[in-house]
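Take a careful look at the sequence and tokenised backbone pasted below. I need to know what the token row says about the fold.
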Amino acid sequence: MLKQREALGVDFTQGSIEDTDELEQLLSKIITEFKLVVLSMSTAPLNQQERLRSLLEVTIDDQFREAINYAVSRQSRVVAAINAKIDTLNTAMVWFTIGLGTLSLPLIIYGCYWLFNQLAKKIIKPH
């Protein structure tokens, strides 16, 4: 992601690295909470069920899904920006090739004319 940011600039990649950090923190929070629920298994079953329900419904279903969707949305914009840059580069390459061909064609024609003219002189007037 750092290479993406260097290549495309901060404007296109705004948040992509931050999304990764946010997802990592959220996953750590989920794992820690799940471990706490498992450790409290023998103490208070009703409290444990409530904590597990909250973990599954609120943290995983709501927060984690929202964070994933937001990260995917941002990455879609990054991919669109990369595709736009690739299209621009392809167009530039096509026009460069056309320009180079246009400039080279007269030189090739003149070179062929000169070569055939030299050959014709040698064939017509042998030494």
